[in-house]
Give the backbone structure.
Amino acid sequence: MIGADLHSIFSGFLQLALLAAAALYTCLVLTSYRTDGPHLRPRVDLRDPAHSAERLAVWLGVRSLALTVRVVTPVLGMLSEASADVGEWFLHRGHDELH
């Protein structure tokens, strides 16, 4: 009984820690993308492998975000144009039915 309670408490703390780590990583990637742009350079220092791994992970996140932005922007443009065409069609159709 007590073991199950401890397990659920530990599991809850682990989930909270993973959520906090994901939020921190997301903030680091977005901040780096905003300040350095999509052309962030990875910096690796073999004397400091922990920071090098962090910088490499952030660099990969920035590259992924840049690729996503580059792919999604034209798609959103096409959807915007299609939405405008549908709105125009709807207005003309409604106007024709009134007369």
Residues 2-98 form one domain.
